[in-house]
Write a structure and sequence with these properties.
Elements lengths: L1 E8 L4 E8 L2 E8 L28 H19 L11 E6 L5 H12 L4 E5 L2 H4 L8 H12 L3 E6 L4 H8 L4 E6 L5 H15 L6 E5 L6 H13 L4 E5 L8 H9 L3 E5 L11 E4 L4 H6 L3 H7 L7 H4 L7 E3 L20 H20 L4
Parallel strand pairs: 4-5, 4-6, 6-7, 8-9, 8-11, 9-10, 11-12
Antiparallel strand pairs: 1-2, 2-3
Helix pairs in contact: 1-12, 2-12, 4-5, 6-7, 6-12
The protein binds N-carbamoyl-L-aspartate (NCD).
Length: 362
C-alpha cells in the first residue's frame, strides 16, 4: 500500500511529497513559485491594477506619483474639502481578520474620495458563507455580482488570498493584509511616514524589532525600502526563533541591502535612524499550539523612556500597531514617537491609491 503525505509549505515555496511505500519512504521536493497565482508588476501605471504585493513596484516614478498625490490628499483633508473623485463608484471592503486602522482608514478614504457606495464588511469569517464552506474564489465573484463593486479591499489569513482573489476577480483587488507575508498598503504608508519624518528615505539605517517571522508588515516594508534605496542598511532584531524567514532575508541580500541580524536591541540603537517595532503575533502561536513559547517571548523588547535615551536624538520610532506592551505609554510624548502620525498617513495614502486605481485621468 502506498500512503502519500503532502506537505505544502508556501512560505518556503516548496511542495514536499513524502511517499511511504511499505517501510521505505521517498522524499521528493518540487520547487514552486512563492505564489500560486500570477502577480503583475505595475509597470508605471496604477489604473485598473491589483495591489497584491510590494514586488509589483519596480519603478521609482510609481512611488513619486503616489506620494505626490498623498501630499495633496493631506492638504485636502486638512481643509475639510468635500471631494467627488469617485462619484458613482462602489467599493467593497471584506475583512476576515480583525483590524482597526486598516479597516477604518480604507473606509474613510473611500468616503472622503466621494465613493457613492461603500460596502464595509468587517466580520467575513463569522458572518459570510465562509462559515458554510464557501471558497474565497466564489465569495469574491459573489460580492462582485451582488454589489456591482468597482474595487474590492481584502484582508484574509491565507498567505496567497489576495493573489487568488485577483485571479478570480474581474475588478481590482487591494491587499489589506494577507496571512504572514504581505501588507503592501501598510508598507507604503510606512515609507511615506519615514519621508515625512526625516525628509528622506535614502541612506538610512532601519532597525526592525520583534516578530520578524510571522509579522507581514516587516516583510513588505523591508522590500519596499530595498526598492526605494539600495543603500538602506537594515538591522533585524528578534529572538532567534522569530528571525526573518530565509527567503525574505535572501531577497534583501540579493537587492544589495546590508542586513545584520542580532538579538540585542541596546547595542544597535545608537546607529538607528528608524526603529520599527512590532508585536509578537499571538494568533499564529495559538494556531500552532505554541502558547508556552509566546508567553516566554512576549515583553522581551519592551521600549520605555530609559531605552529611548540610548537612541539618536533624531531617530523615528514607528509601529504598525496594535501594540500590546511593546511601547510604554510614557514614550508617546517623546517627539520621536511617530506611530500616531504614521496611522494618519494611512488615510492619505489610501485616498491616493483608490483614486489612482479607479480613475484614468490623474
Ligand atoms: C498589522 C497587521 O494587521 O499586519 N496591523 C495593521 O494593519 N496596522 C500589524 C499587526 O497586527 O501586528
Amino acid at each position: 500500500m502506498v500512503n502519500a503525505l503532502i506537505l505544502y509549505k508556501k512560505e518556503f515555496g516548496v511542495v514536499c511529497y513524502i511517499v511511504f511505500f511499505e517501510k521505505v519512504f521517498i522524499i521528493t521536493l518540487v520547487k514552486m513559485d512563492r505564489q500560486d497565482y500570477p502577480i503583475m508588476a505595475l509597470g508605471g501605471r496604477f489604473y485598473k491594477k491589483n495591489l497584491i504585493a510590494i514586488g509589483q513596484f519596480t519603478r521609482k516614478g510609481e512611488l513619486k506619483r503616489l506620494f505626490g498625490l498623498a501630499d495633496k490628499m493631506k492638504k485636502s483633508v486638512e481643509k475639510r474639502e468635500v471631494r467627488d473623485d469617485l462619484k458613482g463608484f462602489c467599493i467593497a471592503e471584506l475583512f476576515y481578520q480583525p483590524s482597526t486602522r486598516t479597516f477604518t482608514s480604507f473606509l474613510a478614504a473611500a468616503q472622503r474620495m466621494g465613493a457613492s457606495y461603500v460596502i464595509p464588511i468587517p466580520g467575513m469569517s463569522a458572518y459570510s458563507s465562509a462559515v458554510k464552506g464557501e471558497s474565497l474564489a466564489d465569495t469574491i465573484r459573489t460580492i462582485e455580482q451582488t454589489t456591482a463593486a468597482d474595487l474590492i479591499i481584502l484582508r484574509h489569513p491565507e498567505d496567497n488570498s489576495s493573489a487568488m482573489a485577483a485571479y478570480f476577480s474581474r475588478v481590482p483587488i487591494i491587499n489589506a493584509g494577507a496571512g504572514k507575508i504581505e501588507h503592501p498598503t501598510q508598507a507604503l504608508l510606512d515609507l511615506y511616514t519615514i519621508r515625512q519624518e526625516l525628509g528622506r528615505t535614502n541612506g538610512l539605517t532601519v532597525t526592525f524589532l520583534g516578530d520578524l517571522k510571522y509579522g507581514r508588515t516587516v516583510k513588505s516594508l523591508s522590500k519596499l525600502l530595498a526598492l526605494a534605496d539600495g543603500k538602506t542598511k537594515m538591522v533585524m532584531v528578534s529572538p532567534p526563533s522569530l528571525r526573518l524567514p530565509k527567503d525574505d532575508l535572501n531577497y534583501l541580500i540579493k537587492n544589495k541591502v546590508k542586513v545584520k541580524e542580532t538579538a540585542d536591541l541596546k547595542t544597535v540603537l545608537a546607529k538607528t535612524d528608524v526603529l520599527y517595532a512590532t508585536r509578537i503575533q499571538k494568533e499564529w502561536f495559538e494556531a500552532e499550539g505554541r502558547m508556552d513559547e509566546y508567553e516566554r517571548l512576549k515583553g522581551k523588547y519592551d521600549i520605555n523612556n530609559k531605552i529611548m535615551k540610548l537612541a539618536k536624538k533624531k531617530m523615528v520610532l514607528m509601529h504598525p500597531l496594535p501594540r500590546v506592551g511593546e511601547i510604554a505609554y510614557e514614550v508617546d510624548d517623546d517627539p520621536r514617537a511617530a506611530y500616531f502620525r504614521q496611522m494618519r498617513n494611512g488615510l492619505y495614502i489610501r485616498m491616493a491609491l483608490l483614486r489612482l486605481i479607479l480613475k484614468k485621468e490623474n
